[in-house]
Design a protein that fits this description.
Pathogenesis-related Protein p14a; 8 strands; 4-stranded mixed sheet; 938 residues; single chain; 75% helix; flat; 4% strand; mainly alpha
Amino acid sequence: MPTSKNATSMKGDVISMPTKRTNPKTAVAVMLAAAMAAPSVLSPATALAQTSADAAVRAAATRASKANDALAKAQAELDAFLAATDFDGLEAAKREAQAAYDEALAAKRAADREYDEAKRQADRAQVRLDEEKVVFDAASAALPSLSSTLDAAKTEYGRARDAYAAAAELVDGGAIAASRAELQRAQTEYDAIEEWQTEEKEQARQCLIAARKAYNKTVERSGSTARAQADAAIAGKQSAYDAAASAYSGRKRLADRLAGEVTDLEGRLAVQDNKLSAAQKKAADARTAHDDAHAAVDAAQRVYDDALRGHEAWAAEYDRLVKAAADAKRAADNARSAYETASQTVKDLESQKAEKQKKVDELRKQMETGGQSTIKNANDFFEFIKNQGVVDDGGIKPDYVDNVAPGAMAQNILNGWRDVYIDGDKSDVLSKYTNLNDPNDASAIGNMLKALDLIAECNALRKAEGLPELYVSDVAMAIAIMNTNWSAANLKKTGKLEHVASHSHGAQGWAENINAGYTDAHTAYEGWYWNEKANALGHAVTDPATGKVYQPGGSGGQTGHYENIVEGSYTVTGAAWNATGFNGRPVMGQEFRDENKVGPYGGLDGRPVYYNLLENIYTVDAYRARLLKAIEQGGGNSQLQARIDQLLKEIDDVDARIAAQDLAGKKAARDAADRAKAAADKAVDDHAKTNIGTAEAKAKLDAAKAEEARAAESKRAAEAELARVRSAVEAEKARINQQLASKRAQLADARAQLPALEAAKNQAASELDAVRTRYAAITDSGTRYDRAKADLDAAQAAYAAKKAEVEQSMKAVRNLSATLSEARSALSLCEAAVDDAEADLESKERRLAEAKEQLDAATAERARLEAARDAARAADADAPAKKPEESKGDAEAASSDTSKDRIPATGDLDAAIAAAMAAAGLGVLGAAGAYRRRERQG
């Protein structure tokens, strides 16, 4: 419904409402009459002046009275209007109308939604119907073509069946003829019945159909029998032909292959002939070249002989001088060699002398400072026993040792003799990992004693195994110290516990066990021996000393340490104890070997160096006693003096050997021999300058001889190669000819068999063609029948499928048409519901507008009456009675100009008229009309 912006109540708008009040026209008339009742004839001037004050007083009193009356009247009208108007009812009516309008609006929207949904359903039904009609039209259009195809297939099937039957009758004519006669009888009976005889006609039609089916089956059965006989006959001939063709083609392939092999062998014979020809040519060329070289030698010899005959005296002198120079050179070389040998010998002897003198000085200083030295490390120990010499210290001399030299070899090893490179690095040698001044190093004397505990534990275990105990040697101890120190350093560097032998070939030759982190000998052998024994035996073992049981799988499943410990062939061992090699805990090592004789250890070039170990071997207790003795005795003065005396004697021996070298005499002899050689060389050079030209001839002769020798060698090689090639070629040709003869014989035999095999193949082909011709009618008609039957089946299936599709589509069209009709009916109902909802909404809208208009009009009227009352109240307040003095002044003013006496009266009349109009509500009517105009425009 169209509404304006003022459709609801707004403050300040006033509309008129029908109320019971005085007629405006009557009120105006009364007021005008009252106004006109005033005197209209003016008194004379004197009278007016005398009475002006009284008149003014009366006029003011009159105005005040009228204002009071107007206020009372306005208040009475307002009270009457409020009493007569039910504002709550108007508000309730408006709310009720608004609720009805909202309900109608919701119903209208719901009806619109139902209409939209019904419209969508109808549209979808129409689309589906249109689509299905397209399908129906397409399927219907295809039916005539399929029907024609089916008719053609039936016709072709009948023809093919009849041809097939005619061919099959040659084999099984009786059955087909009988079935055909039955079919013809049924057809005759069917044709004889009139169309109006419906029941009889249908029975005859069924009989005709049955007869036709029986006939078709008979034709198929007889045809199948005939085709089977034909197929069998053809297959037999086909097999015979295939066998003959296979025999012929196989023999033909054999002949072709043999011919190819013969050709190949003949080519190989030609290759051999070419090889021989090439070798023969090369030999002939070599002989020619040799003959030419020999002729060149003869020519050069003649030239040289001519030059030589005039130069024999010079040559004889030259030969003599050359021989003298050679003799001088040999003498000089011998003298120089003798001097150099003597110099080296003296140098070595002086080095020995200096070393011995140094040792003498050290021993004397040692005697002077107290006579007792401290054994701190292995080097001190080996020095002590070396100085002590050969003594009875419980050692055992092996049968493979000739001269015992206690401690010497071990000390040399410890000090880097025969050192080895680590991983091939020449700056990284094994000896640098041993620090003789470090109390934690394996070389420390206290750690050597701890290492003996390892060996004692090992021997106890070997004894329990029924094995001999191992002996200890100085060299084995030195090797263990060197290797264990390296393993400890490598563990700190890389975190890996490794054997030095895996990083240097020169450190091999000894079996080795190493460990890290164990605290004593017994716990070390828990890992080395007990865990690995359980692994090796495959079952639990018990340490009788502790009662601890060890299960297989400990020590990472290893067995190598255990195997070293119980190896029966080992006789010698050495051990080492690096005290802080693994996070402040020990790294231990033990070496094993079968004897203390020879073994690869050392060699800076990475290759093993073998040496004899000239030393005794000891039991653990004996070796421990040696260590303790060295620690206890150190270097006593008597022993030191004996050692000094021995060294001084050795120094005297060295001096004698130095003097025996006669180094000065050998130097003089060398210098003299060098001078003699220089003179002889100069004589040869001087005489060579007098040569008169034989050198060039000699050079040419030598070159010719060299070329002849080269040519002779080439000739010899070429002739040898020719002989080798000839022998190889003859042997190969003999082998090829033997193969060739065999292949040619086989080829001739294969070719001889081909005509007969080809004739047999042709005969089989003729027989196959004959039998195919004989049975062509049945096979061809059978093939045609099969094809026609298949085409008929396909045409029937296609027609039936398309017909079913048409029927299905037709059914769908009918269903969709019904659905569309229902949808359109539902749409019509929805349209009616929408119209009803729209009409109801318009009615509720009008009702709402009316309720709003009534409420707004009542509100405006109340506002108007309240405004009139307020105006009357204001007028009453503004009209008090004037004072006598003011009235007198007015009278005097009035008397001053008599020509204007009517003007105030006229003004009072106008004011009265205006007041009467205002009281009558004419201004209110104008406001109400303005409001209504605004509403219509909105």
